[in-house]
Write a structure and sequence with these properties.
about 400 residues; transferase; signal-anchor
């Protein structure tokens, strides 16, 4: 994972949650000159199977990066830099705000991952004229010509990587990104990558993050760089067969106002290839589920009710194949008309434990971090009050019985 001092508490609470879920993997924490010595000491003190690596320092010392170049990685772009750098052959990358419901190491048994060497997850389908989906605008203001992705696939410098252009495979041609239906293809909050046979993909990834991102903004942050590296290098890769979901948000009153349209944090189901297997919520990617102040205080004017602290995410968009929402919602995060179903019973106790660890480290308490707190039995569900019939009386009602 990648951390900086501003999200240290999120990162520590995630590390503790991984251990509480039974994960025993070694953990690398990457940063770019933005973890102070006390933060590093705290990480070492809380886990004895962890490494903390200042990537930018290493590349500057080796004269690979200038100081100015290194500073550009004090952003989302440190994530693909960490993926490229790590010595782990099989890696699981997690964003610090991922709320887990199971040990992600179990995903190494996924058939798609074992066959192709990656496990990627889709983002929401948001069809805007941006990034890979960008088209030119004519004098009348109308969009014209091919999307950027189509032009880039043909103009990419394949020879630089000892590759040749190849017509995209049918599966890729059927993707929302290729068909110009979305500006966002991949969510990079969780990645599984086996680097054993991915040398060319890693070479392309290095090019994308050190050169091409300065030529054209092809992605919101880093997320499209991963699957594109595999696509351009003709290296097999695998996406979850299920589209993105979101959880309900309490401040936005999703379930009261529009229960078929949820607008909360991104969620993903277990990427099983067996469509008959019961849906199993894997994780939710949302700082607003853990941090009581998940936004920057100096940007209060831009605050949306679906982005503030979400106390009770009771529902989730049902597991389904990736598809576009049925219309525009209040916010880009909304999955309009895609339905809702009760969230996994495991979500609340695991979320409770994650919040306990987050609050403990935020307040400077260490001992609570050493325990895997069990939330215990939940309160019985309080039935909703019976709604009164507010329909006007029929004109044909007998006056004697009215």
């Amino acid at each position: 994972m990648c951390l900086h001092d501003g999200i240290l508490e999120l990162g520590i609470s995630l590390i503790r949650e991984l251990r509480c879920l039974g994960n025993k993997d070694p953990i690398e924490v990457h940063h770019c000159h933005d973890l102070t010595r006390p933060s590093v000491d705290l990480l070492f003190g809380l886990d004895d199977n962890i490494q903390v690596i200042d990537l930018c320092e290493r590349y500057v010392i080796k004269n690979v990066f200038s100081d100015d170049m290194a500073k550009t990685f004090q952003s989302y772009w440190i994530k693909p830099l960490a993926v490229h750098f790590t010595s782990f052959e099989e890696l699981i990358f997690l964003d610090a705000d991922a709320v887990l419901l199971k040990d992600p190491a179990t995903l190494r048994n996924n058939e798609g991952y074992k066959k192709n060497g990656t496990l990627f997850f889709y983002d929401r389908v948001i069809n805007t004229n941006q990034y890979l989906n960008k088209r030119n605008t004519n004098a009348k203001g109308d969009l014209e010509g091919p999307i950027y992705l189509h032009k880039w696939l043909k103009d990419f410098d394949y020879q630089r990587f000892k590759l040749e252009y190849a017509d995209p495979l049918p599966a890729f041609k059927n993707s929302f990104a290729y068909r110009g239906k979305t500006a966002h293809e991949q969510d990079s909050s969780m990645l599984l990558i086996n680097k054993r046979n991915a040398e060319k993909a890693m070479n392309v990834l290095w090019y994308l993050i050190t050169e091409h991102r300065f030529i054209y903004e092809f992605s919101w942050g880093d997320k499209e760089a991963f699957w594109l590296s595999y696509e351009f290098s003709h290296t097999p890769y695998f996406f979850s067969p299920w589209g993105a979901s979101v959880v309900s948000t309490t401040p936005n009153k999703d379930m009261e106002r529009h229960p078929d349209t949820l607008c909360g944090s991104l969620a993903h189901f277990d990427p099983t290839l067996d469509a008959s297997a019961p849906p199993e919520l894997l994780y939710v990617n949302g700082r607003s589920l853990v941090d009581p102040v998940p936004f920057r205080l100096h940007k209060l004017k831009l605050l949306q009710p679906n982005l503030v602290f979400n106390m009770l995410p009771t529902h989730v968009t049902p597991r389904q194949k990736r598809r576009a929402p049925s219309g525009k919602g209040e916010w880009p995060e909304c999955m309009t008309g895609m339905g809702s179903t009760p969230a996994s019973p495991q979500l609340m106790p695991y979320l409770y434990r994650r919040r306990q660890h987050f609050q403990a480290i935020s307040m400077g308490f260490i001992e609570p971090l050493l325990e895997c707190v069990n939330a215990g039995e939940s309160l019985p569900v309080i039935p909703e009050p019976i709604k009164k019939d507010t329909a006007p009386p029929s004109k044909n009602v007998d006056k004697q019985t009215a």
